[in-house]
Amino acid sequence: MNTDILTPQPVRPRAALPDHVRPEQVRDIDIYALDGIEEGFHEAWKRVQTPDTPPLVWTPLTGGHWVATRGAVIDEVYRHPDRFSSRVIWVPREAGEAYEMVPTKMDPPEHTPYRKAIDKGLNLAQVRKIEGDIRAVAIELIDGFARNGGCDFARDYAGIFPVKVFLALAGLPMDDAPMLNALAKEMTRPSGDTPEEQGRSLQAANKGFFDYVAPIIAARRGGDGTDLITMMVNSEIDGKAMSPDKMLGLVSLLLLGGLDTVVNMLSFMMIYLARHPETVAEMRSDPMKLQRGVEEMFRRFAVVSDARYVVADMEFHGARLKAGDLILLPTALHGLDDSQHVDPMKVDLSRRNVADHSTFAQGPHRCAGMHLARLEVIVTLQEWLKRIPTFAMEQGATPIYHSGIVAAVENVPLVWEPDGS
Question: Going from the N-terminus, what domains does the chain have, and what CATH number goes with each?
Answer without folding.
Answer: 23-415 (1.10.630.10)
